[in-house]
Amino acid sequence: MRVKQSEMSIAAAAFLLSGTGLALLNATAFRAGSGPRPDLVATALAALIASVAILVAGRRFSRAAAGTLMVLVLVVVVPSVTRVPSELRAVNLGLLFLPFFLFLVWFLPMWFARLLGYVWIGLYAVIMLGRFGIEISTVVLTIGVTGVVIGELVGRFKGRLERTSLTDPLCDVWNKRGFERVLGSTVTAAERGGQPLALLVIDLDGFKRVNDELGHGAGDALLRGFARQMAGRTRPEDVFARFGGDEFALLLIGVDQHEAVRTAERLQREITDPAWSYGVAEWAPGETPAAFVERADLLMLRAKRDGRGERGARVRPAERDPGTAERDSGTVERAAGTLDG
Which residues contact 38 (CB under 8 A, 6 or more apart)? Predict the structure, then answer.
């Protein structure tokens, strides 16, 4: 059966396989002196085994495992500078800093990349200066500065890419992908801390007519204006996102069902242009983020179907028979209809 790979698993395996090849070459064809190098053979074997294990794990190769692997690489490679027979071999080991640091920057948190990267280059510099004297300082400085500058630039580029991929460029709020990432971590925190969460799924009324009659420019302006109004009337800790088209979501952290309904009613009184419909759901313990969003979305669709001023509610599971209660979400749910635009 073919194992699905992630970019991180492929990059880690490639890094280790290249290390395997270099270690074997230094132990055989490029061996300095006549004596055997069992340390290099052992290093090559360990790197080969680790690379195979990573490829077997595939997508299951986690960031925590990658971080642990990079710590081990640092522990093995940097001290080996003390055992190389010449300055040239020591410089070659120093050049491994660049792919090491780039892997950390691209796949792991920036604080962790900086910690390991700067520890690597700092230890390497101390060992090199201690073994070969001040004459080698220019080479060490070049390796260090080049690696750090490239790594930091890649880190900034990565951060910009992540922000772009997680935000909606039109409304300058979270997009659906970014919202799902935040929702996942928020649900995990709620499971640990027991705090309530409520979700509004929002849909603008008559948006298609605006696009058809006034053009997409007017539609875009309407979306931007609505996003600005919502951002100005919600709390900093709330999470507002555009799912696409004229559909939005508002995650209310630390807010239960009834308070969420009051918040939605207040927002509808304050934001009347454009008119909009919403569905409200409170997160139920054990519920997945996807199911949570789906419940609120279905209630929003019910609100649009029922029309202006209509509301629907579900009783709590405790008010039903035990078998039904186990299947239900355990919260009251409502959907409010459309106000006049």
Answer: none
Q: What share of the chain is helix, strand, coil (3-state, %, to 5)?
A: 65, 10, 25
Q: pLDDT tens-digit profile of 70-115? A: 999 999 999 989 988 888 888 988 888 999 999 999 999 999 999 9
Strand partners, 200: 250, 280
Domain enclosing residue 103, as ranges:
7-165
In a domain, 97, yes or no: yes
Q: Is 246 a catalytic residue?
A: yes
Domains in the chain, number: 2
Is the separation of the CB atoms in 23 and 41 below 8 Å? yes
Mean pLDDT of 307-329: 34
For the full predicted model, state whether its pTM sits above 0.70. no
Question: Looking at the structure, do residues 192 and 268 belong to the same domain, yes or no?
Answer: yes
- Bridge-based pairing of strands 239-244 and 334-336 is unpaired
In DSSP notation, 226-278 reads HHHHHHHTS-TTSEEEEEETTEEEEEEET--HHHHHHHHHHHHHH--SS-EEE
- Do residues 157 and 212 both lie within one domain? no
3-state DSSP assignment of residue 113 = helix
Q: Tell whether the model's pLDDT for residue 61 goes beyond 90.
A: yes
| Same domain, yes or no: 88 and 173 | no
- Which CATH number covers residue 202? 3.30.70.270
How far, in whole angstroms, is CA 44 from its chain's centroid? Answer: 33
User: Which member of 203, 205, 246, 297 is catalytic?
Assistant: 246
